[in-house]
Design goal:
This protein is of the alpha/beta class. Helices cover 37% and strands 20% of the residues.
């Protein structure tokens, strides 16, 4: 007979117990990165959905209403088996039958459509991936119509449209059309549908508050953000800004997005940035975030030249953190801003900037965990005095999306004409 689980082995902090009391099917558990949302979600499944019975010794004896458990999580978190350690205290195992006769399936958001026909189970949707009304959101709505569920999020929606799938899943609105008719006003003269403002926001706030369960852990860490000034090639930057010319491909710039990309490449490729990175990495354990492949090649070369041990997580390689006295872990923003953690270092470097507050917060949370052994965490942001670096910084501070077209319109108004011509050519094709 399998060993029974002791209630005392599932140790929840007081703030987690308070959140657990408030959860119900259809809730969004909003806890900061590293707050322990996973274990609270499983505890909810066991105690409220399956109605577990304890014996006189505090062991879980059986489940009154057993249900199969499905956990939809980022692919990296599935592949790294991060959920295994959370499931183990409850005698549950990923993709296996449990002591209680229930099944637990852990799979990625990429495969969510496989489960649209499941009924009478319980789903944990890990990390917010149901923004908008795309393929994942439609699968999410089919699943939630036949099953109980909760959603875990470290960074809930910035705008009301982000909550659309969750509102529909909770039965607040029939569909997207119903929501738009009641709350959305579009800009009148825009070339494509653009939301101008929302109406009846009091109702939206009430609905959000009714499903959002806030879980704020007492801070056991202190974040220290260091802005590290680096140089950039001012002459080349001015040349591109004035001539609207792509020096890397020896041709005129065609669009506002290309214009911004070239400026960022000039800024991020500067030798002073590489030198500062190496200085900060020596004899330390450091996680480094970057954006583009050209940055990766520069950083790789510099680390190899200085005999610094490193490994990578990006679209090309999925390597583990090195096992050595000092190391550098190179992580691409888009590939590795969530679904993993590291408590072996207190230092993170942002080699180049992201323009997303959500992404930055997720990245910083990789080392800011509830079980971290470090109190002081140090984040180094390498920033030049270029206008594009400044504007991206402001976007993050204000929690706004950096708009390439808006930036180019101010900095390079001549691009307006070429962008329109380019758009017309696409239409004609």
């Amino acid at each position: 007979m399998a060993e029974r689980i002791s209630h005392s082995r599932v140790n929840l902090y007081d703030y987690q117990k308070e959140a657990l009391k408030k959860l119900g099917s259809g809730s969004v558990l909003n806890g900061g990165v590293g707050s322990g949302k996973s274990i609270v979600a499983i505890a909810y499944y066991m105690w409220k959905e399956c109605n577990c019975i304890f014996d006189s010794d505090g062991n879980i004896e059986k489940l009154r209403t057993p249900k199969n458990l499905y956990i939809i999580t980022p692919a990296k978190k599935r592949d790294s088996h991060e959920w295994d350690s959370e499931l183990l205290p409850f005698l549950l195992k990923a993709n296996d039958r449990s002591f209680y006769g229930t099944n637990t399936i852990v799979d990625s958001w990429n495969n969510i459509s496989k489960y649209v026909d499941v009924k009478d189970a319980f789903f944990i949707f890990d990390e917010q991936r149901v923004v908008g009304y795309g393929k994942w959101s439609k699968s999410f709505l089919k699943i939630t119509s036949n099953n109980n569920w909760i959603l875990l999020s470290a960074t809930p929606g910035d705008v009301w449209m982000d909550y659309l799938p969750v509102f529909i899943a909770n039965g607040f609105y029939k569909n997207k059309t119903d929501f738009i008719r009641k709350h959305v006003v579009y800009k009148q003269y825009a070339k494509f549908p653009q939301i101008d403002y929302y109406i009846n926001e009091d109702r939206l706030q009430h609905l959000r508050d009714s499903i959002l369960v806030q879980m704020d852990r007492p801070k056991n860490t202190q974040r220290h953000n260091h802005i590290v000034k680096v140089e950039h090639d001012k002459e080349l930057y001015k040349f591109v800004n004035k001539e609207l010319f792509n020096p890397y491909e020896d041709r005129p710039i065609k669009s506002s997005s290309e214009y911004c990309y070239i400026l960022r490449r000039i800024v991020n490729s500067d030798k002073s940035r590489i030198d500062k990175l190496i200085e900060l990495c020596r004899d330390k354990k450091v996680i480094v975030f970057y954006n583009f492949d050209y940055e990766l090649y520069l950083i790789r070369s510099a680390l190899e030249k200085n005999h610094i041990t490193f490994s990578e997580w990006n679209g090309h390689k999925h390597q583990e953190i090195p096992n050595s006295e000092s190391w550098v872990y190179l992580v691409q923003y888009s590939a590795g801003n969530d679904a993993w953690n590291c408590t072996d270092t207190d230092t993170m470097i942002f080699y180049s900037q992201t323009y997303s507050y959500k992404v930055l917060e997720q990245c910083m949370g990789r080392i800011d965990r509830v079980n971290n052994t470090y109190y002081d965490l140090h984040y180094y942001h390498l920033v030049s005095n270029s206008r594009i670096d400044y504007r991206m910084q402001q976007s993050v501070k204000l929690k706004k999306i950096f708009n390439y077209s808006a930036f180019a319109k101010v900095d390079a108004p001549a691009l307006k004409t070429s962008a329109i011509i380019e758009e017309k050519i696409k239409i004609l094709k």
